[in-house]
């Protein structure tokens, strides 16, 4: 047999990443206490977390997890279709369906897994998927995996969306986010819902950054706009405002039944630990009640203060009431330098750059949390003013 001579040396790939300024590395934290984080003897105020309501480190979360572990232990032991489905999983899914005003819901191990399981299970090679250009990577990857024809419309461009709907073949799925993760702006969901209905398409809305934050009981932007009943597929995550991990798809009973039978990321994954499902049920109830309303009010106040601070130093913010406030700086090297200077000043705001965002649009992605204090936000403004000023 002839010996194979192909090289598995990946050094050139690593060198290329470094040369292009795309090198990334993990920076472990030693301690997280609300919005204060510590590592290697240093302390920073964290303005980069998606823990919008400050629940991840809350007393309510710790109590719910402790109770869950005491009652249910560790791992679930198997996939959901083998013997990994506990009554607590079913109760959580019933609560999520009630929360999203749908017939049923299904939980997954992550938001990424929701997209990868849902979209290929519902559409195939004879169908069409129409995506907003700024949709999350999980939605793009899921669309590619489905084998469907993919069409992309410029961000929030309704006229282009309609033209694509007019020529789409097969079953048509329109995919958008409610609040876009890197820009913090909102999709025009009313208009998109009207267009999808006019052309007989289905609509999937990823509410990862809207649920828990916006709308009555924190049900998301679609509920805030009164179009939640026009959304066919409600995709969400449990790892942002909900403070835990996992994801869900809320839809009709038929859709959920199909996913149970065809969503590969659901079928072939071990069920999430029961204690997490228990804690999630507790947190979901909190988010829906007066405590959730109070946290959303605190978050809105922090967002408004930060927008005011940014405006004073000449930085415009998205008009949408999201907790994501990008400071677009342009070239990656410039944004990385600003991020490093802020880190030295005691603020954790990593640089977001290509391929997460387009080349030339590197940014600081400031995210607010309900437990950020007014003095912390004021201090951030002072640090930004000084840092951006010294950088010209």
Q: How are the SSEs placed, and which strands pair?
A:
Blueprint: H1 11-19, E1 31-33, E2 36-39, E3 42-46, H2 59-72, H3 80-84, H4 87-100, E4 104-108, H5 111-122, E5 128-132, H6 137-146, E6 149-153, H7 158-167, E7 172-177, H8 189-198, E8 202-206, H9 221-225, E9 233-237, E10 247-251, H10 253-262, H11 264-267, H12 274-288, H13 290-312, E11 324-330, H14 332-344, E12 347-348, E13 351-352, E14 362-367, H15 374-391
Parallel strand pairs: 3-12, 5-6, 5-7, 7-8, 8-9
Antiparallel strand pairs: 1-2, 2-3, 4-10, 9-10, 11-14, 13-14
Descriptive report:
With 392 residues, this protein is of the alpha/beta class. It has 15 helices and 14 strands. A seven-stranded mixed beta sheet has the order 4-10-9-8-7-5-6, sandwiched between helices. It has a four-stranded mixed beta sheet with strand order 1-2-3-12. The termini are far apart.
Give a quick set of tags describing it.
single chain, 392 residues, alpha/beta, Aspartate Aminotransferase, domain 1, Aspartate Aminotransferase, domain 2, 2 domains, 7-stranded mixed beta sheet, 4-stranded mixed beta sheet, 14 strands
